[in-house]
Amino acid sequence: MEPIPPSCKGFTVYTKSGCPNCRNVKNLLKKENIEFTVIDCDEYLLFENDTFLSFMNEIIGNEEKRFFPLVFVDGLFLGGYIETQKYLQQ
Fold first, then answer.
1. Whether the predicted pLDDT of 66 surpasses 90
2. For the chain, does the N or the C end have fewer beta carbons within 10 angstroms?
């Protein structure tokens, strides 16, 4: 199963189950009335972990980014919950 790339338009949020910051970023975007695409990564992490990590390393360009959520805006990596908060405050 190939990972789904982030959307070229708007927000894309890669999440996993039980992640408080994943829940927080989704709530933040909902509160701001911002539409977003959610990509649940549980299956990737269970069955295709190496493929998923390689895919993320390619599109992010940094192997250090191993946290959730992974938030993209217009196809570009933004960061996690804190970076999303800061971005929306601008």
1. no
2. C
The count of domains in the chain is 1
Is the per-residue pLDDT at 11 higher than 80? yes
- Which CATH number fits the domain that encloses residue 80? 3.40.30.10
Cα–Cα distance, 33 to 46 (Å, whole number): 32
Mean pLDDT taken over the chain: 93
* Average pLDDT of span 2-18: 95
What residues contact residue 67 under an 8 Å CB cut-off, 6+ apart? 21, 80
> Strands across the sheet with 36-40, in order?
36-40, 11-15, 70-73, 76-79
Q: Does the residue 3 lie in any domain?
A: no
